[in-house]
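Regression test attached.
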Amino acid sequence: MIRYAARALLADRLALAALGALVLALLFGAWNADRARDAQHERWGGLVAADLLTLESLEQDLEALANGGQAPPAWVDPSRPAALATLVAIPTLSAPPSPLALLGMGVPGVHPLEAKPTLAGLAPEYAREELANPEGLLTGRFDPVFVVVFLLPLVAIALVFDLLPRDRARGLLPLALACAPSAWEVYAPHYALRALGLLLALGLGTGGGLLLFGFDASFPGALPALGLWLALAFSHGLLWIAAASALARLQASGTVQALLLVALWVAATAAVPAVVSPLLELSVQSPSRTTSAHLAREARWKSWDEKEQRTERLLMQHPELRPASASQQEAWREQLETLAYHRGMAEATAPLIEGLERAARERQRRAAHVAWFSPSLALLGALDELTGTGPSARLAFDRAARAFQASWNAFFIPRIEAGQPFTAADVARIPRFRPGPPGAETNLREALAAAAPPALILLLWTLATAALGWFQLRRVGLEAGSRPLR
Amino acid sequence: MIARIAHIARHELRCQLRDGRFVAAAALILVIVLAALASSAVSRAQASLERSQARAHVRELWLGQEPTNPHSATHYGTYVFKPVTRLSAFDTGIDPYTGVVVQLESHVQREFAERPVRDSASLGRLGESGPGFLLCALLPLLAIFLAQGAVAGERESGLLRQNLALGASPRAWLLGKFLGLMGALGLVTTLAVGACVCAAAFVPGEETLAEFLVRSSSIYATILLLVAVTAALSVSIAARCRGARTALAVLLSAWGLGTFLLPRALNEVAEALWATPSAQGLEDQAHELFSQGIDGHDPNDERAQRRIAELLAANGVGSVEELPFDIGGVLMQEGEEYQARAYAAVFGNLWSDWRAQNRLRDLAGLVWPFAAARRVSMAFSGTDLEHHVDFARAAESYRGVLVKTMNMAIANNKRPAGERYVAGRELWETVPDFSYRRPGFDFALGAASRALALLFVWASLGLLALLLPWRAEVAA
């Protein structure tokens, strides 16, 4: 029976073409992800190098200043901690690509893992966007995650949609059923072999991509994450094979089966997100980007106008801050005003940022429940987490950036308040940001934990559909002919 | 012949309308589109109102600023908010991806910021799901499904053989089937697009009623054309292929390739071929160009010194103190104009690369007309790259006016050495509020011309496929 199933598979040109297309699509996806990974790595490396250069040149400038060099304008004067904290020494916080970045690139143009610390928080007012062709962002990326979420079901459908209907149309079904207790015994080897073919193509495409474009298997946790990635992708394929077997009892022709399966695929990948996405936006109110932009603008102006009053208030409350040397008074006061300006801005924009973040968290929480209605969304959620491009990676980066922001403030604010001029010896003590890649080491457990619920939902979908398929195949009878298209 | 075609078409239409599968599929598509439309219309209406409030608010902030030096005022600058078009409720296009606001200040042309898509949950990763996209993707799929039933189904059940035996010519039968299908599909299209246009009409927008009607009817015509093309091809291919399986494989492959696969694949190839700079890279390019012009902030700059000498000679005086205007204001304005030209060059290159990428992505329209219809739909909705660039240019031009007014105020209000010119509300009021007139329908037509031409080629192919003779006896 197995030999017959293997011969049938090798003779099925559509099935072989579909498997070949899957391998090629995975390789193409890996090539694209590799380019995105290189670009992210280059950007991250460039930012780290730029940061080191800034520190180096800062040290030189401070030494030159100490040796009697000409002082630059106040806002870029390296001896003023306020100038350093708000302009001169600000690094761009960024993370290197995740170890599984070759298998999924997320939406780097929309959610870049980058931030800038200022005394008023993480770029609170006016986040600068990375340049990206908006039509490209609209279209979406072609990476291995796209292949297994969108294309793998179509390949699975192409492999099995016609297995039983074709035999029924040719009149071979009664013959087959005469030789076995049920259609399950006859067709299970066919379905199993085709599932194996799918697994082989998946392994070949993914493995080939990893070998061709490089994969650091020595990275802690990378191999288990890769194993889980493949298992989930295969489970998704099995789900669609099982769905085809579940329709076998409908007595539909191969064409009708294909149409039904494609309609289910459209529902899972396009219709459910199309309905749910707007409902999520309507159900969770968030300050709009327009409102946040102009409210932040107002906060900036108000804070600028109030900086002198705020400084006066601070001095009245803390007279001990006043420096002993009268020569430092003016520079010190200007720095205090800069600090007051940033503090005012941080206070005014805090509710706005909190509102945006709360809404984003709530939308994400609700979006996770949508996986119950669409296995494709469950798979997407799990794979995004595993490749370090999901919400948990963003949260981890955000947490690291906030911790850095706190250390940035803790380093500069006392110096500004004390009116201490910055010296070359202080440069080495400026906090620096050195995060691990998303989805790795400390973050891996978090990524796996975040991937677990959607992964379980997908497995439940697969098991339920497989059980239905088994049940339906066992009940396939000897009804004559297929239902016509019309 | 015409009577027979009309008879077959009427029969086909009646069959479709009585078929529960058609009713269910059409209802499902309508529900999906209406759900997407409800959210889209509400969010666009809200965005339009918020934009009006934000616009008035930033104007108030500009006018209400404390007396200060005009050049400082240009550093604080102002914000310009991207307008919302009514039809963006139908096709949001690139709007969620471009940012809603741009900061205008001296020396820098900024890119748009605050992309609404940043607030969407991870579902945004799946790509777009607005009504425009859904209609362009799902209606052709419905056409393929219905054509399978109407043509292959009739052939499998032997009805085609009976029809031919009764004297119907294969061409008349095919045309009748196509027209009958188009009746059913046209009904769904009209209901869906009609609902979208009605909802869009309630979104506050600045376009005139005539403009809105012309654009929305053009969108309707485009989608109807897309549906007609796919119906004609589906009917013809289903009739000509010996097996329904082959016809379905060909049509579904073309639909899947042209709708989901190729646009993404070509997107990647386009990005590899036309690599565009990062925000920092673009800034570096602009600064490289700045270094060849006057630095308005540095009077010791070599080019600034040369320009001062020219101005002294032209005015017949020996020192800048004797000049009838403030040399600082003039140099800053000349530096600003040079920088604006530099930014025009680097942004021009960036937009040109983006256009090249888009043209390559549009090649997916050669396999299936989806990409062409989407391009037309976005252009007529005013949410494509060309409309965005037009607005960005208008904002940049306004930045030029704002900065020039401030710099020339400095130049024309020369103060004695050591005294700083401080201006107030009277000067701020001389800068007009930003107003933007969206380009007319002809602009949209120009932006969509290539895609429209491709759609007409597809339409000709569809018509040809219907009219070409075929051997119905063999197929039957």
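Expected vs. actual: identical. Strands of chain A lie at 93-94, 114-115, 117-118, 121-122.
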